[in-house]
Prior knowledge:
The chain is of the alpha/beta class. It contains 10 helices and 16 strands.
Amino acid sequence: MNTTLLITMLFVSILIGLFGLIAFLWGLKTGQFDDEKKFTHGVLFDGPEALKEAIKKQEKKQILERIKQMENIYDIAIIGAGPGGIGAGIEAKKAGFSNFILFEKSPEHSSTIRKFYKDGKRVDKDYKGQIVDFKGNVTFTDTSKEDILGLFDKLLEENQISPKYSTDIEKVEFQNNIFKLSSTNNEVFHARNVIIAIGKMGQPNKPDYKIPPTLLKKVLYNVNQITAGEKVLIVGGGNSAVEYAISLCEETDTTLNYRRKEFARINEVNAKNLQEAMATKLKTKLGVNITHIQDNNGNPEVFYDDGSSEVFDKVVYAIGGAVPLDFLKKCNIQLDEANLPITKDFESSIPNLYVIGDILSKNGASIATALNQAFDTIARIKSKS
């Protein structure tokens, strides 16, 4: 091989090696090997200044993203568009809050009232003897199911509040002094304060004994699927059970079962109507408990602790609702022995996370009570802001 060519090739190799060494030393000095991204992406830039400029742009982009995220943080997130949630929204608007959101998992507000109150049901201001003097901006007198729904429609429209319907919040987490709310639709929201205003009737109480799987369409928790001419058993001793029985006995063969012999928890109007119904069409099975239910040719046969049994077309349990325990546990809220949230002035064990409505009480709360709790909670949030 030509000597001159060998010398040239050697010189070029040394020169390339020298450039490589310089680049390596520059990389060490500027920290290009400190993390994976700098190491693998450094070759994309012409030199140190270009790389520094790119880093500045990336940091600026991250800052802008954080600012945008901060702008999307609500002052208040309200979970549940029932009376308590709607009341909280109204009070928040009246208190000067505009950056809040009201979530409802159903397509409409007040789903419990729509689903579990029969048409024309009386709605008392002072429920179960709980005398309530209204504190806030939402008030009503004794009314009906239809009128209370109309009132909430009107208030939402007048105050320009549009609930985010069909959004089921399944978890609330406290992260970096901000609440992260996750929905079953994989949406994520952030808020500085959260008010849980969900009711119990979304999870109605069920009997202790097991219902045969073949009877799941015959054992119900409201009367929406009852048709005229059926033989129906209503189980329960509260206002809802009594109202169901009184209404249904006009067009069905209805029996009302209650484990006690007297109805001590119903209002005066229902007590009077019950006596009249019992004197005419309504049958009763009082002072006895149901021990179990079994399938009798596709219909529920009910067995009582007095040794008797009877077959019905449908059985309706109206025995109240249960605290949504799983949801509260996901929120890490401390609960008492009865699995009710522990609160002080409606603030839970987690600061700025509030709970209002009938999930605070073993026996539930009235609509009027929930509205007052909403007023007090918003006032507390306002005082801390």
